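4.2 Preliminary Data

To establish feasibility before requesting continued support, the project team ran the inverse folding procedure on a target of 284 residues. The structure was first converted into the token representation described in Section 3, and no sequence information of any kind was made available to the design step. The complete token record follows.
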């Protein structure tokens, strides 16, 4: 496994790989890696000749400075894990490498409401920061395929829209959410949960699953299902920000009489000081 901190060194590696006709898969991360991230590496290794993982805690996507400060940083363990999973290249840029003083041009994009709801509504500016860093990383790496998790479903749809709007020849692959045995979606933030909140946190997956099952059984009152789920989350001691049954493509509030081809059920809740998100989707 090779690792690079500077773009110039990564470029040397990439031009050689391309000259040899090798395909490149890329998984962007913010580190504090776990089995969820490794599923991205695994999928990329299966579909490409070379796999690149970036570790960069992107300051522009944190709307809360305290969250950025408390974000776990575990680079040595991350490198061990990537080595164990035979990742080919790790890109570990500093902030000045990604955001040079002379700046770089980010194109104007229109996400048509995708960025206004759910995470976008509760974390103003978050997706502008995500789009900016992913655009920059894609410009540096120019992969054939990009690997992102279903865990961040809204982020996936926004990056999908960005690739589409810019007509970038990059295939975006959605990797299924990897969960702990009790259903809790793996997240770098889970390590900050107190033992009490760790025990209660699976309520998110349980309430998503119950909601999905109710829809499959024919339940039509989506707003009532959302209300029941929020109550269950509150009863478990977590504080829900939203629990939303949305159209899986537009991310706007779904209605049973609507024409949605896919529904996505998304939740965000505070478990003490830690904000958790999760989702499930259903193709109709
Ligand atoms: P992050 O480091 O949290 O920015 O995540 C980097 C990538 O890993 C994103 O595409 C996430 O959606 C994905 N990811 C994070 N957690 C999981 C998980 N539990 N299962 C699958 N993918 C995940």
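Position-by-position output of the design step:
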């Amino acid at each position: 496994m090779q690792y690079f901190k500077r773009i110039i060194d990564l470029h040397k590696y990439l031009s050689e790989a391309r000259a040899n006709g090798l395909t490149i898969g890329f998984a962007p991360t913010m580190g504090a890696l776990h089995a969820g991230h490794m599923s991205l590496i695994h999928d990329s290794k299966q579909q490409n000749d070379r796999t690149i993982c970036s570790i960069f805690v992107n300051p522009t996507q944190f709307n809360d400075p305290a969250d950025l400060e408390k974000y776990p940083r575990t680079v040595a363990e991350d490198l061990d894990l990537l080595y164990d999973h035979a990742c080919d290249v790790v890109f570990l840029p500093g902030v000045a490498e990604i955001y040079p003083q002379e700046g770089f041009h980010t194109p104007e994009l229109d996400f048509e409401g995708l960025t206004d709801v759910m995470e976008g509504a509760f974390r103003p500016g978050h997706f502008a920061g995500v789009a900016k860093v992913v655009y920059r990383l894609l410009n540096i790496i120019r992969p054939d395929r990009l690997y992102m998790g279903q865990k961040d479903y809204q982020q996936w749809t926004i990056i999908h829209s960005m690739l589409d709007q810019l007509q970038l020849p990059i295939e975006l692959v959605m990797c299924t959410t990897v969960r702990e045995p009790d259903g809790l979606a793996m997240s770098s933030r889970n390590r900050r949960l107190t033992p009490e909140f760790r025990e209660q946190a699976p309520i998110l997956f349980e309430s998503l699953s119950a909601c999905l099952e109710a829809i499959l059984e024919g339940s039509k009152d989506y707003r009532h299902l959302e209300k029941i789920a929020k109550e269950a989350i509150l009863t478990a001691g977590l504080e829900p920000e939203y629990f939303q049954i949305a159209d899986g493509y537009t991310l706007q509030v779904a209605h049973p009489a609507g024409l949605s081809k896919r529904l996505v059920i998304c939740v965000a809740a505070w478990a003490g000081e830690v904000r958790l998100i999760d989702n499930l989707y259903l193709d109709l």
